[in-house]
Amino acid sequence: QRAMSIRSRPTSPCSARASSNLVLARPLGCDTFVAYPPASPPNTVIFGKNSDRPCGEGQSIRRYPSASYGGNDENAKLKCTYITIPQAKQTNAVLLS
Asked: Which of 14, 30, 55, 80 is labelled catalytic?
């Protein structure tokens, strides 16, 4: 659970301690941000999202290298969890958790 102090915010949900000046509340959702130019480099979109995990739950970090796909197949598809989308010809490296 996320706790927020009226006077200050804890550095992590796990570091919060109940006290007389602390208001405890369940998070209403995830914190997400998107940055477009000029807040990001030209032709670059930055997307970020926190992970609302319980304290102490492990969270692995995975790196996926850039890759080229498709070759001559213009109809290459990528099967996702619920949908299938066109496969990009080139992907960038990402670090995800």
From this structure: 30
Nearest partner of 64 among 97, 28, 32, 35, judged by Cα: 97
- pLDDT 10s digits, 33-52: 899 999 999 999 998 887 77
| Cα–Cα distance, 60 to 44 (Å, whole number) | 26
C-alpha atoms less than 13 angstroms from C-alpha of 87 in its C-beta half-sphere:
15
State percent of the chain over pLDDT 70: 65
What is the sign of the dihedral through the CA atoms of 33, 37, 38 and 42?
Answer: positive
> Is 30 tagged catalytic?
yes
**Mean pLDDT of all residues in 71-91:** 87
Instruction: Please give the structure tokens belonging to residue 89.
Output: 């010809």
Q: Which of 50, 14, 12, 17 is closest to 31 using CA atoms? A: 50
**Quick one: CA dihedral 62, 67, 73, 74, positive or negative?**
positive
